[in-house]
Design brief:
Radius of gyration: 29 Å
Order of helices and strands: HHHHHHEHEHHEHEE
Strand content: 5-15%
Structural class: alpha/beta
Helix content: 40-55%
Number of helices: 10
Largest sheet: 5 strands, mixed
Strand order of the largest sheet: 2-1-3-5-4
Number of strands: 5
Distance between the termini: 52 Å
Length: about 280
């Protein structure tokens, strides 16, 4: 599948120009649509209108999906192969009728176009390989930390964790329950929904991820950390996971002085786990 990386957009434009100039008698709706969308996307004003028209579920880059890049590029390459082969086999006005010579010309033309295609960029599969740090078992760190939890097969447990870990929780095990859904930390998922989380849940989300950073001194911060830990215990969250960046001195001190949670595992991953006693 041809994507917008590299020079595939230029290849698309060259293919569209070739189709437009050589297929005048047989205009196709695809050609007209492709040219119209290209012009709309290239001009800032019309592109801005399209961005406003599409919902917030999509980024501006998604507009280029309206361009039939692969189809038109393939059509143009096939048309170029046909034209080049016809020109090569009729050089000097003499048609080469020898089948072997025709096959040779065809192979050379296809090889030249294939090299040209690959010089435009890298063809990639629809599924891309993630670049997260992975362990030997192939799990990224954000999912690997979940392997340290004791999850019963016939019961559910409640987990409070940073966003990157929460994103893997339900994929890893359906018995892991979260206090909020991904729509809280991926706004595009709730772009036009009227349901919102209450302030208490929003504060809890910010607290487990980055901390609130609104306190005047460490004493107030420590009191607030203890208050959140008590809230989690009363709500029945079985596991709390903190990233090393979040696990600062004040939070560590508050965790050491409370009685509801105990440190569960010390792992080589950049996270700490606390379990409800």
């Amino acid at each position: 599948m041809a994507r917008l990386e590299g020079q595939y957009l230029m290849l698309f434009m060259a293919s569209l120009l070739l189709i437009w100039l050589t297929e005048k008698e047989n205009k196709k709706e695809l050609d007209f649509f492709s040219l119209t969308m290209l012009l709309l996307l290239l001009f800032p004003w019309t592109a801005g209108l399209l961005v406003r028209y599409q919902t917030a579920f999509y980024s501006p880059q998604n507009l280029w999906r309206l361009l039939p890049l692969t189809a038109v590029s393939a059509y143009g390459l096939v048309l170029a192969e046909t034209k080049m082969l016809a020109a090569a086999t009729q050089a000097g006005g003499l048609r080469l009728r020898a089948e072997k010579k025709r096959r040779l010309y065809e192979v050379l033309v296809v090889a030249a176009l294939a090299v040209f295609l690959f010089l435009c960029g890298t063809l990639s599969l629809g599924r891309t390989v993630t670049e997260e740090k992975q362990r030997l078992d192939g799990l990224p760190e954000e999912a690997a930390i979940l392997t340290y939890l004791d999850i019963p097969e016939d019961d559910c447990i409640y987990l409070l964790a940073p966003d990157e870990v929460s994103a893997w929780a339900r994929i890893y095990n359906g018995n892991l329950l979260l206090p909020y859904g991904r729509d809280l930390y991926e706004p595009e998922l709730s772009a036009y929904l009227f349901d919102t989380y209450d302030e208490e849940m929003l504060l809890l989300h910010d607290w487990v991820n980055t901390g609130l950073n609104i306190w005047e001194n460490e004493e107030q911060e420590k009191y607030a950390e203890a208050d959140f830990l008590n809230y989690c215990a009363e709500a029945g969250y079985h596991y709390l996971i903190f990233s090393y960046e979040r696990y600062n001195g004040v939070l560590a001190e508050a965790l050491a002085e409370q009685d509801a949670y105990r440190e569960n595992y010390t792992t080589r991953l950049p996270y700490v786990i606390y379990e409800l006693q």
